[in-house]
Write a structure and sequence with these properties.
With 349 residues, the chain is α/β, with parallel strands linked by helices. It has helices spanning 13-18, 25-41, 54-62, 70-79, 91-100, 116-119, 123-132, 146-150, 161-170, 181-191, 213-219, 233-238, 245-254, 269-275, 307-315, 327-347; strands at residues 44-49, 66-68, 84-88, 105-107, 137-141, 154-156, 175-178, 195-197, 224-227, 241-242, 259-263, 280-283. Helix 5 links the parallel strand 3 and strand 4 (105-107). The structure holds 1,3-dihydroxyacetonephosphate and iron/sulfur cluster (SF4). Residues 69-71, 143, 157-159, 202, 228, 230, 244-245 line the site of 1,3-dihydroxyacetonephosphate.
Length: 349
């Protein structure tokens, strides 16, 4: 593993949400109407992640956009004929959209929404790490900067990480994996591949603690546990289903339990409830020993996406909310991203 994790400060989700203006019903309705009008006027489409505010997810649904996991966001944006992609999520998602579709304008409600995995894997340090291990195939998670993707042989999302590692393992390739050590550990245990890990983590999923699980299961006997693989090994070991956000929603519908404890960002409850209306969803515990609960099951950066910022981004012609990727970086980064899309397509048949 790379020596030490990169240390950085990050906002508390509660503070991010408290700093946002509370809207009256009339203000809310006006904003929603303005956003829908602006999307239409600009031939723009809204591509939102499951972790964004329910109000943004609803607009994406109602205007022909998409609400999905990070792989489908990339695929949808690339295939869509809109002139402008409005990406509600975190910066790497906007960058991925721009890398895949350089001819499109890509804007985001805020460019300040980053991701602890992205911040924890600076391009220069990562390049040096790769240079120390030239015998390894470099596989990076989508939750990375454009420059880190440009240094990689492959990009993956959590929905296809196990299958890709399996594929590379079968070819006899040794893997250098970055940045999430928890997802990497899960993939390694599933596949037996030889994987050298970067020492990064997600500040949201790392907070889910197995200590509180027994107590919660006493309150909900027979409940199933759905866990995103950015969570700890202990949480994963207890899970009934482990997978990307889309895969967890699918598991909520296909598994027989009526109640699920969910170890991922709580904004996913909106789509889970829609997919399985008669089931009950309970947030996994984030308190207990070792937990700081700065994020408390909702990503502080995803929480920065809101209606007002979305409208401002659509109205602003200054390009302050527009994603730009250096062309030299883009032409390198698009190679592993194209491979990711092709690999995922081959899995789907
Ligand atoms: P998914 O690819 O499962 O949507 O995950 C993205 C993410 O950021 C999870 O924290
Ligand atoms: Fe990054 Fe974690 Fe937020 Fe996902 S939930 S965007 S991995 S910090």
């Amino acid at each position: 593993m790379s020596a030490n994790p990169i240390v950085f400060d990050y906002p508390r989700t509660e503070d991010v949400l408290n700093a946002q203006t509370h809207l009256s019903q009339a203000e809310h309705d006006r904003l929603v109407a303005d956003i829908k009008r602006l999307l239409k006027e600009q031939n723009a489409v809204l591509v939102a992640h499951y972790y964004t505010d329910t109000e943004l997810q609803k607009i994406a649904d109602e205007t022909g956009g998409c609400v999905s996991d990070s792989l489908e966001m990339a695929r949808f944006g690339h295939a869509h004929e809109a002139d402008t992609l409005v990406v509600a999520g975190v910066k790497f998602m906007g960058e991925t959209a721009k890398i895949l579709s350089p001819e499109k304008r890509v804007i985001m409600p805020t460019l300040e929404a980053t991701c602890s995995l992205d911040v924890g894997c600076p391009a220069e340090e990562f390049d040096a790490f790769c240079n120390e291990h030239p015998d390894r195939t470099v596989v990076v998670y989508a939750n990375t900067s454009a420059a880190v993707k440009a240094r990689a042989d492959w990009v993956v999302t959590s929905s296809i990480a196990v299958q890709l590692a399996e594929h590379l393992h079968e070819q006899g390739e040794k893997i250098l994996w970055a940045p999430d050590r928890y997802l990497g550990g899960y993939v390694q245990r599933q596949t037996g591949a030889d994987m050298l890990m970067w020492n990064g983590s997600c500040v949201v999923h790392e907070e889910f603690k197995s200590y509180g699980m027994e107590k919660l299961l006493e309150q909900h006997p027979g409940a199933g546990l759905l866990v995103h693989p950015e969570s700890s090994e202990e949480m994963i070991a207890m899970a009934d289903a482990v997978g990307s956000t889309s895969q967890l929603i699918a598991a909520a519908t296909s598994l027989p339990q009526d109640t699920f404890i969910v170890a991922t960002d709580n904004q996913i409850f909106y789509k889970m409830q829609q997919a399985a209306p008669h089931k009950q969803f309970v947030a996994a515990p984030t308190g207990g020993k070792g937990a700081t609960c700065r994020s408390c099951a909702h990503c502080p950066w995803m929480a920065m996406n809101n209606l007002q910022r979305l409208k401002d981004a659509l109205e602003d012609n200054s390009s302050a909310n527009e994603i730009h990727v250096d062309e030299a970086v883009r032409v390198e980064a698009v190679k592993p991203l194209d491979k990711m899309l092709a690999f995922s397509k081959s899995l789907n048949g």
